[in-house]
Amino acid sequence: MESKSDETKKSKSASIGAPKNFLIPIMLLHLRDWNTHGYELMEKITQFGVESVDQGNFYRILRQLEKDALVTSEWDTTSGGPAKRIYSITKAGEQYLDLWAGSLNQYQKMLNQFFNVYNPFFTPKSSSDKDEEVD
User: Fold this and answer.
1) pTM of the predicted model, to two decimals?
2) Cα–Cα distance between 97 and 120 in angstroms, integer?
3) Number of domains in the chain
4) Which of 2, 12, 49, 118 gives 6 a disulfide partner, CB atoms 3.0 to 4.6 angstroms apart?
């Protein structure tokens, strides 16, 4: 007989979501187009569709990306308030992003194949379809 904690562990492992390190290519993608402060980057990632971003983890990832020379930062003292770091992607970061894009492209092909086999007539419902069902 399974305990409630075993059931919880199973449901957490079976939950659907982006891989933990998927945040890295999303961060690099945004930094490719904008040199920005960490808080602004976090806002853009949330607008991109990442539902919740742990602030502490987010800044740890930024520091690690900087250690790995994928991102660089410098202090912005031009604003009237306290100095803030402005983050930018490096050439190595762009190359790493290209690797991620290639991997995600292969993953997308595999997902497409999965749905073709799963149900050749499968079309995901949009949120507007769900609203219409309620009426």
Assistant:
1) 0.71
2) 32
3) 1
4) 2
